[in-house]
Backbone:
C-alpha cells in the first residue's frame, strides 16, 4: 500500500479497516517464533522426503536413503530394504525388545513338558499372562472369559470333565483340528412316551430323581437296537472320548440344563428336549491361526485354570 | 499487482481457490497409487499359478450388501494394520489385494467392535447365528445390538444378477459371456469361475445356501444365511503359510 494508515497512539500500521468507530485491525508482522517454526517444518519436510518413501517417479517412487531396515525372510536370508511398514513389522517381530523376550519364553515353554511348565514359576507366570490374552481373543467368545462355557452350547473347560478326552495331547488335537459334536435327534425314532422313559433312565444314571418304572423301560430302549443310545454312550452310560459322547453318570450336564432346572419336571423336560432334538455343535479348527507353541500355552493355561477341579 | 484482498472479498473465488488448494493436497497422495507398481499385490498360488483372491460368490455378495445395510461398518473395520499387536490379535495384516473387489471397501479406522478382516472360520456358523441374533447370549460383555430379524427375513435374491452386473461395471470380474467365463477359469480355476458366472448366479446362490445351511434352518434362504456366508469367507482366501513374508514386503 502506498500510504499505510498508522495508528496514532502506537504508531503501528493498520489495515485501514475500522469497526464501531474506533476498533481497528492492526497489520502486525507474524511473531518471529511462529515464522521460524514454519520455516522449520519446511526443512523437516525436505529431510523427511530424503529419508522416507516420498515422491512418485514414473511407476515407482523415491525410496528414501539412510533409513534402511533389515529383516530375515522365512527362508532365513537377511535382507535390507528402504523404510516401509511391512519390513518394519517383520523387523519388529524378529528383533523388537518385547518380541525377543516373548519368543525366548515361547521357546522355553515349547521345549518343556507340561509338568515342567507347571513346576516352574517363571514359565507358569508367562503362560498365565500370555494365555489370558490368547484365550480372550480366540476362545472366550464361545467358552466365556472364565472358560465356564454356556450350558447347552459351549462346554465348560474348567470342570475337568472332557467330552473328547482331557489329557494334554488330546486337548491339543481338539484345538488344532476342531471338533464336530453330533447326536441325532430321536423324535422320529421314539414317540413321546418312549422319550420320557429314556429321559427318566438318563436322569437315574446321574442319581437325579426319576420315575423308577419309566427308567426301567428307558433302560431297555437305551440298551436296545432301535434307538441304540449305547453305541455312543456305552451300556454303563459313561460315554466315549473317541465319539465325544457325554458321560451321563457324572452329574456334569453340558447340553441339558439339569443342574439349573429346579423341579424334577423341568429336569425331565430338559433331557427330553435333547433326546428329541439331538445335538449339533462345532468347534472350529485353530491350526491355521495358532502355532504348536501357542496351542501348548493355551493347554497349559487351561490346566492352570482347571487346577483343583475334581468332577471326575 | 495481484492483491490478496481481491480473493478475500470475493467469496465465490475464495471457495473455488480453497477447493483447488485442498484437492491438490488429496490428489498428490491418491493419484500415484493408481499407477505405481505394486500398490495392489500380486497373490498367486505358488503351486497352481491361479489368483487366490477372487470376487465374492453371489450369496457372499448378498451377505455383504446386508453387512452394509445394517451398518456393521460403523463399529467394525476390515483392515489389520502392520503392527505387532494387531498381528498378534487378528492375524496377518490385510493386503491391498484382499479388498480389491470390495466396492466400497470396508477398511475404516474406528473400532467399537473388533476388526473383522480375518473373522472367517474363527467361529462356528452356530456361534455366528447366536451372536448376531443376541450377542449377549454368547458374549456377556458385548455392547453389540441384536439383529433378530436376519434369521426370519427371507433373502431377496431376485436382483442378484443386476447387482453383479453393477459390480462388473466397476471392474469386478464376474462373467457374462463365454469368453469372460473362460478367462475366469484361467485366472481363478474352474470351481471358482463357476461361482462368478452371472448367468447362473441364482442357482449358485441357492446351491451354496443349501450346502452351507449357515443359519441352521434348511428351509429357504434367510438373510442370516447370506451374512454368515460372507463373514465366514472374510480373510480366508490367502493361505499365508504358502508365502514367504518377504513376498509381500517386496511390494512396498
Residues:
Amino acid at each position: 500500500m502506498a500510504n499505510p494508515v498508522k495508528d496514532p497512539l502506537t504508531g503501528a500500521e493498520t489495515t485501514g479497516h475500522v469497526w464501531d468507530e474506533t476498533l481497528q485491525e492492526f497489520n502486525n508482522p507474524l511473531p518471529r517464533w511462529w515464522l521460524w517454526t514454519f520455516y522449520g517444518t519446511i526443512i523437516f519436510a525436505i529431510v523427511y522426503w530424503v529419508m522416507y518413501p516420498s515422491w512418485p517417479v514414473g511407476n515407482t517412487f523415491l525410496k528414501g536413503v539412510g533409513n534402511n531396515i533389515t529383516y530375515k525372510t522365512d527362508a532365513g536370508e537377511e535382507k535390507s530394504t528402504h523404510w516401509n511398514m511391512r519390513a518394519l513389522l517383520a523387523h519388529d517381530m524378529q528383533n523388537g525388545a518385547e518380541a525377543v523376550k516373548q519368543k525366548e519364553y515361547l521357546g522355553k515353554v515349547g521345549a518343556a513338558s507340561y509338568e515342567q511348565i507347571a513346576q516352574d514359576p517363571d514359565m507358569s507366570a508367562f503362560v498365565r499372562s500370555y494365555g489370558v490374552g490368547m484365550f480372550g481373543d480366540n476362545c472366550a467368545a464361545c467358552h466365556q472369559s472364565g472358560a465356564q462355557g454356556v450350558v447347552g452350547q459351549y462346554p465348560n473347560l474348567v470342570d475337568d470333565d472332557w467330552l473328547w478326552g482331557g489329557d494334554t495331547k488330546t486337548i491339543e488335537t481338539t484345538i488344532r483340528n476342531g471338533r464336530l459334536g453330533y447326536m441325532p435327534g430321536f423324535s422320529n425314532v421314539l414317540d413321546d412316551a418312549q422319550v420320557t422313559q429314556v429321559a427318566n433312565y438318563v436322569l437315574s444314571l446321574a442319581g437325579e430323581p426319576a420315575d423308577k418304572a419309566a427308567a426301567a423301560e428307558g433302560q431297555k430302549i437305551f440298551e436296545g437296537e432301535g434307538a441304540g443310545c449305547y453305541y455312543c454312550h456305552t451300556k454303563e452310560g459313561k460315554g466315549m472320548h473317541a465319539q465325544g459322547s457325554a458321560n451321563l453318570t457324572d452329574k456334569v450336564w453340558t447340553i441339558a440344563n439339569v443342574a439349573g432346572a429346579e423341579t424334577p419336571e423341568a429336569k425331565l423336560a430338559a433331557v427330553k428336549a435333547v433326546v428329541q432334538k439331538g445335538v449339533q455343535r462345532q468347534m472350529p479348527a485353530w491350526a491355521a491361526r495358532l502355532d504348536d507353541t501357542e496351542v501348548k500355552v493355551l493347554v497349559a493355561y487351561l490346566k492352570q485354570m482347571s487346577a483343583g477341579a475334581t468332577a471326575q | 499487482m495481484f492483491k490478496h484482498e481481491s480473493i478475500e472479498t470475493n467469496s465465490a473465488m475464495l471457495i473455488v481457490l480453497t477447493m483447488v488448494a485442498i484437492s491438490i493436497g488429496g490428489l498428490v497422495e491418491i493419484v500415484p497409487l493408481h499407477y505405481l507398481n505394486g500398490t495392489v499385490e500380486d497373490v498367486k498360488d505358488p503351486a497352481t499359478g491361479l489368483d487366490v483372491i477372487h470376487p465374492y460368490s453371489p450369496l457372499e455378495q448378498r451377505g455383504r450388501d446386508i453387512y452394509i445395510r445394517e451398518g456393521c461398518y460403523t463399529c467394525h473395520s476390515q483392515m489389520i494394520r502392520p503392527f505387532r499387536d494387531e498381528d498378534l490379535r487378528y492375524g496377518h495384516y490385510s493386503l491391498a489385494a484382499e479388498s480389491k473387489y470390495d466396492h466400497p471397501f470396508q477398511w475404516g479406522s474406528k473400532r467399537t467392535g473388533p476388526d473383522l478382516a480375518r473373522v472367517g472360520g474363527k467361529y462356528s456358523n452356530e456361534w455366528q447365528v447366536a451372536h448376531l441374533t443376541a450377542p449377549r447370549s454368547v458374549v456377556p460383555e458385548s455392547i453389540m445390538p441384536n439383529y433378530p430379524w436376519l434369521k426370519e427375513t427371507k433373502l431377496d435374491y431376485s436382483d442378484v444378477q443386476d447387482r453383479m452386473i453393477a459390480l462388473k461395471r466397476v471392474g469386478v470380474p464376474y462373467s457374462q459371456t463365454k469368453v469372460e467365463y473362460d478367462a475366469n477359469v484361467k485366472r481363478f480355476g474352474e470351481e471358482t469361475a463357476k461361482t462368478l458366472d452371472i448367468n447362473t448366479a441364482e442357482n449358485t446362490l441357492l446351491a451354496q445356501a443349501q450346502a452351507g445351511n449357515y443359519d441352521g434352518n434348511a428351509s429357504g434362504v434367510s438373510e442370516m444365511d447370506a451374512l454368515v456366508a460372507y463373514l465366514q469367507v472374510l480373510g480366508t482366501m490367502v493361505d499365508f503359510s504358502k508365502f514367504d513374508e518377504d513376498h509381500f514386503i517386496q511390494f512396498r
